[in-house]
Each structure stands twice: as C-alpha cells, then as structure tokens.
Amino acid sequence: MHPVSVEEVCQAVEGRRGLPKRAVLVTFDDGDCSHVEFALPMMREYGIPGVVFVIAGLLNTNCPTWFDEVKALARNGGKVSGLSPLSPDNLVRALKRLDDDERIAAIKELRSTASIPSPKAPQLRSEDLSQLESAGLTIGNHSLTHPCLNRCTDERIQAEVCQSHAILSKALGRSPSSFAYPNGDVDERVIRSLSKLDYKTAFLFDHRVSDLRPSHRFKISRARVNSDTSMSRFKTIVSGLHPAIHHFRGLT
C-alpha cells in the first residue's frame, strides 16, 4: 500500500498527477478526541498523511454527537412516538430515514422522556486542529451538526455547509477544501454549495474502493474500517475484495 495525502488525491482528480498503484488515503470522520490521543501519534510515527473530517458545530464544546445522544437517551428510557421500542442502534437508523425536522422533533421527545440527560462528551478544541495538521492530517468539513443532508431543506443544507465552512476557516486560518457527507448521503444541492465555496473533493461512505482517478471529484468512494478491525480483515477490505462481496450481496 502507498499512503497518499488528500492533496495528492485532489491533483489526481484534476488530472495533474497520477496516483501510485494501491494508493490509500486514510480518513477519519466526526473529529473525535481520540484522533488526537491515538491516531495522531501513530500517523506521525509512521509518516502517514490523512484527513480528519470535523463536525464544526461541536468544535470547542462538550456536546455529544446527535446519534450518541440518541443512544444514551434511549438506554435511559427515552421514547419516540411511533418508533419505540427499538434498540438504541436501530433507533438511530430509523431517525436517519426521517425528514430532518422530524428527526429534530424526535430528539426533543427523547430528551423530555429520558430519566436522565445524555452525558457530556468533550470535543476537539480549535488548538487541536493545528496539532493534527502538524502531523500531516488535513482538516476537512463534515457539516455543522451531521444531519443526513438528503433529508434536509434547501435552507438547512445552506446552513450546514456554509456555517461549518466559516467556523473551520476561522479556526484554521484558511478555508477547508475537502468535505465528507454525513452518513455518506450525497445530494446535488450539497454539491452546488461545495462548488460555490471552491471545494476540491468530497467523499462518500459507500464501502467501495475508488478508482485511482475518481470520475467525480464530489463523489469519491471510501471503504469502511473500524477501530477494532483485525489486520487480516483490513487487508481484505483495502484489497477491494470485501467491498466487492459486500455490494454483490446487496448489503448497502
């Protein structure tokens, strides 16, 4: 495998350079604090570049992601009319299928019916971003609050893309140029907003291996790897075999 940076991927998309065979771009979603604690030292030690996609609205807060909050509230007795009883994970999946206004209303109902509120969850601070970038990890945009953007109104999409762009631009001292769709849900309205802001690349969450020169700079495939993935499974995933079987079975 040949680790490459997001800038090298951008140059390949634009036809300015080719990527080596078995090129791999390492990406991290959501901007979790573990990216500083665990990922940063390892990436720096081995000189591997990558990109961290940050949920800008959580920067400098102690607020959990909405999906972690939903799971915590559900475990503590929170209910949603018409959707209970569901396991916490299945409840999150169900909420992702709702129009975004309905999802927000459901979360409010969970908060009002749970026995205790969701615990605090320290998030990345602005100073962490420069620390990540000093280790070769580029900061990308992962929206303002991580909704499923294809379930959002035009106005909400504008806010999710533009407000997150402004927050990250201020924190970084420059504009981010890469975007990752929350939940992988691409939408042409989002693409138009990204184009206006001069983004260079945007990434899916489709568990596919991308071509060395992706055909669409705003629809670049990614294969999913979890923190507990074994090395043998990891090798199968990045080889393209596991994603191919996954899609052949209709699992996405």
Question: How would a textbook summarize the main sheet?
Answer: 3 strands, parallel
- Widest β-sheet, arrangement of strands: 3-4-5
Strand residue content? 5-15%
* Gyration radius, rounded: 18 Å
The residue ranges in which pLDDT falls below 50 over 5 or more consecutive positions are none
Per DSSP E runs of 2 or more residues, the count of β-strands stands at: 7
Q: Which structural category do the helix and sheet elements fall into?
A: mainly alpha
Shape: globular
What is the terminal-to-terminal distance? 26 Å
Helix fraction by DSSP (H/I, runs of at least 4): 40-55%
State the order of secondary-structure elements, H for helix, E for strand.
EHEEHEHHHHEHEHEHH
Quaternary state reads single chain
- What's the rounded overall pLDDT mean? 91
Number of separate helices: 10
Provide an overview of this structure:
It is a single chain. By secondary structure, the protein is mainly alpha-helical. The protein is built from ten helices and seven strands. It has a three-stranded parallel beta sheet with strand order 3-4-5. A two-stranded parallel sheet has the order 1-2. Helix 2 links the parallel strand 3 (26-30) and strand 4. Helix 3 (66-75) crosses helix 4 (88-96) and helix 7 (154-172) packs parallel to helix 8 (188-196). The protein is globular and about 55 Å long.
